[in-house]
Amino acid sequence: METVSDLTGLSVAITGGTSGLGLALVRRLAAGGARIAFVARSAPAVMRIAKETGAHGIVGDIRSKDDIYAIALQITGALGGLNVLVNNASSLGATPLAPLADTDCEDFEQALVVNVLGAFRLTKALFGALAAAARNGDTALVINISSDASLNAYPGWGAYGASKAALRQMTAIWAEEAMADGVRFVSIDPGDMDTPLHALAVPDADPSTLKRPEHSAGEIVDAIRMASRARPSDVRRQADDCR
Amino acid sequence: MIAADRPDRRSRKLLTIDASGNVRDLPCRELASLFSPGDLVVANDAATLPASLPGTHLTSGERIEFRLAGWVSLTDPSRFFALAFGAGDHRTPTEDRAAPPVLSAGDRLALGPLAARIERLVGHPRLVALRFLGSREAILQGMAYHGRPIQYAHVPEPLALWDVWTPIAGEPVAFEPPSAGFVLDWRTLAAWRRRGVRFATLTHAAGISSTGDPALDLRLPFDEPYRIPQVTALAVNQRKLDGGRIIAIGTTVVRALESAAAGDGKVRAGHGLAVGRIGRETRLRIVDAILTGVHQAGDSHFELLEAFVERAALRHISGLAVERGYRTHEFGDFMLVEHKAPSPAAAS
User: Fold this and answer.
1) DSSP-assigned letter for residue B309
2) Which residue, of A1, A219, B81, B127, has the fewest CB within 10 Å?
3) Residue A243: which pLDDT band, with cuts at 50, 70 and 90?
């Protein structure tokens, strides 16, 4: 196990940073000395977490095309560049979960807009900053938070599963395309965690059977660490191990 | 949302003039096949700030627009040099805009959610040093959601940030886009890589291109801070030793590289400040060719090109471009000019 100090100087942006896995990541990376900007919709929650962790809080909505460049501007303006982007903000689509035949089109669209389009737009807006880091020989990594619902056909998880499958494939293709530019892309499936999103999806789940988000955050931080010193193929292996 | 006179890259054209005076018309995608193994292309990867901030001059109660025009201290978002404009918007050409109210040190401003104070005037009634009040978070947020990119009278549709960030845009330090960078895309960079054409970047805080005031325009370009990464400085200096060419994407790259080599002719890595103008008297030490927008006699970019080719040849090249339908503004077409290219009249 490495000491946390090897995160010092690393600039990391995290979407969905005020609850669940995102919040656990902000806390863990802040404790490790990384420079962090995080994004969430609720201004009071953003202020609270910024105050608690010292991270740069950004109020913005990944769903909104008009917000994306404003968010990217604040991320690169606050951090002076970027090494790692974690696209963590997710939407379930329909809540409570519903069979596809009962899913409103608007709910399906919501899942795609947050989980696929939002991640695409923000990554595209920040790709220049990430590639600049890579040209300087520094870490440049995009982590897209995936789910086993992107691979397995769980009834009721149609909108979410389809959107996460699209995100996973986008990640894989972008990884191939950006390899020569030195920007790495990985999908990480953090597992079933005890988070507000999971509670919305499965309200009667027994929390004691679920992974703590802090545990998954630890695994993601390990992947970031690995990427900071390893070859792209090692990063992929590490990401697969997290599944 | 592309305005009629804001062609996307696929429809843009590139006029090239090589060192023998040969002229070629190319579609922009042909850029991928230009240059030789061992050549180094250098671009400015600055992203552009939403530098136009409308609001109210609280002392007079009058409407005002400030355009951020320079850093007091690079990347400190609380202090800027800024240019004041009176009522009206970008649809009025800058030279026809109403004068702003009389400004004095200590005046308070409300620019949307941003509270600001004029610290001092900078040698002109419309040019001020301005300080935003509040936390860094609040200032960046206010700028991000209230500010708009500086607009152009020739572009009727409002420009959004995504219109003014080049594909390689990274850190937001420019006030207007380093617009030659619009010629690039990632496919072109990949093609160059496959062919052994090297690519490097620097970050140069491109300033405003026009103030609407003849006296102020004479002071353009303002001093512009830049940062040259170690890898870029090494690559440039190595190319000069190897005999490879250095191709600058845009005038800001010429300013930064030539400024950074002002000492012993070797480019120094790190922060620097580009001052003064480059023109016909300038002896270029680093850059062998420039890819830039199509400029016309009278603008400061045209003057910079005179460091590359004789004025007569340059006038001839610009004339050719206009004759062949090249578009001359920030979102227009491009030309690639080699250092010491003779007048194409002799060759064509």
Assistant:
1) S
2) A1
3) very low
